[in-house]
Design a protein that fits this description.
β2, α6 (about 130-145) and β3 form a beta-alpha-beta unit. Helix content is about 35%, strand content about 15%. The longest helix is centred in the middle third of the chain and has 14 residues, at about 100-115. It is globular. It has one domain (about 1-249): 3-Layer(aba) Sandwich (Rossmann fold). It has a five-stranded parallel beta sheet, with helices on both faces. Strands 4-5 form a two-stranded antiparallel ribbon. It is α/β, with parallel strands linked by helices. It has ten helices and seven strands. α3 (about 15-25) runs parallel beside α4.
Length: about 250
Amino acid sequence: MISVAGSGHPGGSLSSADLVTALYFSVLRHNPSDPAWPDRDKFHMSKGHCCPLWFSVLAADGYMPQCELFTLRKFGSILQGHPDRRAPGVEMSSGSLGQGLSVGVGMSLAARLDGRQSRVYVLMGDGEIQEGNIWEAAMSAAHYKCDNLCGIVDYNGLQIDGRTSDIMGLEPIKAKWEAFGWHTIEIDGHDMAEILGAYKEAAGVKGRPSVIIAHTIKGKGVSFMENNVEFHGRAPTKEETEQALQELE
């Protein structure tokens, strides 16, 4: 998709692939034939630049035809460079970093007010949680005991300008979330058993929100993309795409 479009963000899409795949095919209560089903669980991709991953999962799950994927970033397409509500399965447009957890808190409280058992999942980037709005939302979620809310941090250690540790260090990341009143789970974000176990553990927590800190590899599965900040936002060439697809098979 990104190669055909000539632009996009492959690195963070690949680092999150296992997390989102597990969510859609094993955890979320949702209905591709009725995306607006009132009792659905909700997923919000706060790090919206990684929407090629989300669109791929939605298509694989039946929300749209596979051929739609190759309209990514084209004029008039429902699949833009960041999530757009015109795409089936997208709850809210996103992409302005730092805002997604606030959206998740709102969805969490709305479900409670409506008397629904829906759960809410918000995927954040590690560079994104340098934004102050994330921590304001984290504080409010704990205050309002949003136990139907699960945050997911894609902790791949890289952001657009380099390593998170060089730009604005995140550690001690687990202790920070715990200090804000969250049940905190730390996992290998590419180990499917750990991922599914973390989602199950989060669903059983009562009285406070949960966050999964998933240690991942940017560009996971493609040798020349792994831990390479260049592919934060660079589309692969035709030759690179062919190699990447061979390696991912």
